[in-house]
Amino acid sequence: MDDMLVPGAHVRHPGQPDWGLGQIQSVIGTRVTVNFEHAGKVLINTAAVGLTVVDPDAPGDG
Fold first, then answer.
1. Cα–Cα distance measured from residue 14 to residue 17, given in angstroms and rounded to the nearest whole number
2. Which InterPro entries match (predicted)?
C-alpha cells in the first residue's frame, strides 16, 4: 500500500473523516504531507496512521 502513497494521490484519514479528501503533497520515508480540504496541510507519520488511498472520481469517494 505504501507504494501508492505518492505526491498527487488522493487519500482519507480513517480516524478523521471530517478532514475530508486529501491530496498528498510530499513523501519522505514514513512522513507524508497531505493537504486536506477541511484541515489544511497535515504532516502524517504513516508508521502510526494508515491513510486510505481513494479515487476522487469514484462515486462516494470524492
1. 6
2. DUF3553
Residue 14 lies in a domain: yes
Q: What is the pTM of this model?
A: 0.88
Per-residue pLDDT of the chain (62 residues; tens, 9 = 90+): 568 999 999 999 999 999 999 999 999 999 999 999 999 999 999 999 999 999 888 777 66
Domain ranges, residue 2: 1-37
**In this structure, what C-alpha cell is assigned to residue 2?**
505504501
The verdict on residue 10 lying in a domain is yes
CB atoms within 10 A of CB 61: 13
